[in-house]
Amino acid sequence: MASASPGGRSEASVHSAPVVTRAALDPALVAGRGADVDFEEQEAENARTDGEIIGPERSPYTLPSEASGRKAVKLLPGQHVEFVLPRAANALTVRYSIPDAPRGGGITSPLRVAVSGRQQASMTLTSQYSWLYNQYPFTNDPQADLLHPDWWVTECSCVPAQAEVPPQFAKPFRPMHFYDEQRVLLGQTFRAGERVRLTVPADSPAAWTVVDLLDSQLVKPAYVDRRGVNVLHFGADPKGRRDAAPAIERAIDVARHTGRGVYIPAGTFRVDRHIVVDDVTIRGAGNWHTVIKGREVELDEPAPDGSLHTGVGFYGRSAADGGSRNVHLSGFTIEGDVRERIDTDQVNAIGGAMSDSTISGLYIHHTKVGLWFDGPMSGVRVTDNVITDQIADALNFHTGVTGSLVHNNFIRNTGDDGLAMWSEKSANADNVFSRNTVQSPTLANGIALYGGKDNTVSGNLVADPVREGSGLHAGARFGAEAFTGALEFTDNTTVRAGTLDLNWRIGLGSIWFYALDKSIDADVRVTGDHYLDSTYYAIMLVSEYSVKDRYDIPNVHFKDIRVDGTGTSVVSARVKGSATFENVDARHVGAVGVNNCGSFNFPATGSEFGLADRGGNDGGWLAEWLLPNTITCDDRPPVVPPPAPSPW
User: Fold this and answer.
1) CA dihedral of residues 399, 402, 407, 411 (deg, nearest 10)
2) Which single residue of 65, 209, 263, 366 could bond 336 by disulfide (Cβ 3.0 to 4.6 Å)?
3) Do 127 and 205 touch, CB atoms closer than 8 A?
4) Which pLDDT score is estimated for 14?
5) 390-403 exposure pattern, b = at least 16 Cβ within 10 A, e = fewer
6) Is the pLDDT of residue 5 over 70?
7) Is the preceding peptide bond at 56 cis, omega within 30 degrees of 0?
8) pTM beyond cutoff 0.70
9) Mean per-residue pLDDT, 55-75
10) Are 134 and 142 in contact (CB under 8 A)?
11) Measured between alpha carbons, how far is 237 from 265 in angstroms, rounded to an integer?
12) Are 429 and 406 in contact (CB under 8 A)?
């Protein structure tokens, strides 16, 4: 007899065959978009379980909202979830959440892994790297009072410090960043069709364990480089008991003088500070085999750059010192120890300036930012990496990065923008973000560009942003240099984007343009994008009310776009300017096709934002009566959840 689960279904009613997804969708719906990865994603809600399915839910500060696909499985002690391997595998990644300690700091809890009924591993889950609270830049203390009582707080629509009767907020206030992931090598290869059961022991100290998904893959044997300068010959400890940084640095010196590369074999090597790299190749045995792991170390006094801590990382020389060149890093893991967000800290996995360099095949975990490049610099290629569980961004081109490529990277669970170009002080130019996957950023955007010249975002897949951002973003903000030249978004797909901005209390677009401190008047072309299951709008163009008559967005062109499901309109215009639309097809639209507020002056001549129909716009969303600038302003229209995306 099938056992009924608390989620209201029986084990016999779920899929007995494996259900493989990409971004929690049928892979056919996102074919040709995002990273080409060597693992198979399986969502826990599609597996057999005696636990409870939680979700779907898109409200922030909830466990389902940060889950891939906005659903997960909640297990109590003694319960399990069971997956079927879709192909041969010897390695697993489990994305999960367990409770925080009552006073913060996290707990640990076991999870048993059995394949076809045979115990294979016992994982020790932890919440030490998750659970942030409160206002930006957040705290690890669930009992903390407001960090900024003099800031506007949307929950009370007030500035608490100025209120006659100070408002009271339930604690913990704004919990977030719930999930973590852990990888395990099984020690042998299992065939397709064998069952992987994850069981929470009956005596687990965790009141509950949420399993979001399982990634399974066949990991290749460790790579051996017999010509490279082996760090073991310089005393590096592969057991991780002694500091390996001096040995690695000695190997780098020898490699540079002999024209050879550095080889770091299989093992765990402890590094608790930055290793400066210049004109060197460093290769590991593969990121499942070679692990560079470090603790976060508090500095005796703040560094000149404001850092309070240091930690494991490979850094190019600073741009002020000429930067580094010809750096090539591949085939290892960088495992950090960052548990809080301190914006001045340089505790990133990769940092500094590295021109004419390559970063490939790395697994980057538990650092502040995976790769933060401070330019000017040029010619860096970041390819084929996996970057997960960051406190802030996965990658940021910051200041004057030019002629560079970020391609085929998989990113999940960042605490800020997944991929960003920030043209602070000096413009980023001629860069490409292509065929990357960004899933579940808990704050900000999947991919964001802040100013710059002639940059391209192409072929990416972005899913499940949570708050204060959305899927794709171009923002004239954060003091960035202006957008100039061309800005191109081409053949990208967003899934379950279009979030609710909690400060404005309005919905955002799956792609959104924001003119906050400058106009966005580059030649902006959005071509071939697909916006699937947008919670609010598919497309948004917006400015801040206080600068609504100063800045505009006058030159945006949308062509060959598919919109499959919006909770509200296809387009929301909350700025002065104009856009053209050609072959923009939409279905399952929850409100009037265009929500046109312009810049909120509402002149008798119509909205200050004009729309031009260049033909081929199907689905009835761009009706003639909306053109060129009919005012249809509804500040907060009701949301009509669309059906799940389906083949076009």
Assistant:
1) 0
2) 366
3) no
4) 52
5) bbbbbbbbbbbbbb
6) no
7) yes
8) yes
9) 98
10) no
11) 11
12) no
Q: Please, which pLDDT band fits residue 16 given cuts at 50, 70 and 90?
A: confident
The helix (H) or strand (E) run that includes residue 246 is helix 245-258
Length of the chain: 648
By three-state DSSP, how is residue 402 classified?
strand
* Distance of alpha carbon 391 from alpha carbon 552, whole angstroms: 33
Residue 258, amino acid = T
CA dihedral 209, 210, 212, 214 (to 10 degrees): 20
pLDDT digits (tens, 9 = 90+) for 592-615: 999 999 999 999 999 999 999 999
The residues pairing with 81 across neighbouring beta strands, listed in sequence order, are: 49, 198
Rounded CA separation 396/445 (Å): 12
Amino acid type, 24: A
Q: What is the tens place of the pLDDT at every residue in 165-205?
A: 989 999 999 999 999 999 999 999 999 999 999 999 999 99
What the block records as the tokens of 136 is 């930006």
- At residue 10 the predicted structure's pLDDT band, cuts being 50, 70 and 90, is very low
Q: Contact at 8 Å (CB) between 255 and 281?
A: yes
Burial of 466 (0-12, 13-18, 19+ CB in 10 A): buried
Q: DSSP letter string over 179-197? A: -EEEEEEEEEEE-TT-EEE
CA proximity to 513, closest of 539, 486, 541: 541
Contact 243, 263 (CB under 8 A): no
Report pLDDT for 417.
98
- Furthest-apart CA atoms within the chain: distance in Å: 79
CA distances from 472 to 230, 373, 385, 528, 558 (A): 43, 21, 20, 14, 14
**What gap in Å lies between CA 411 and CA 462, rounded to an integer?**
9
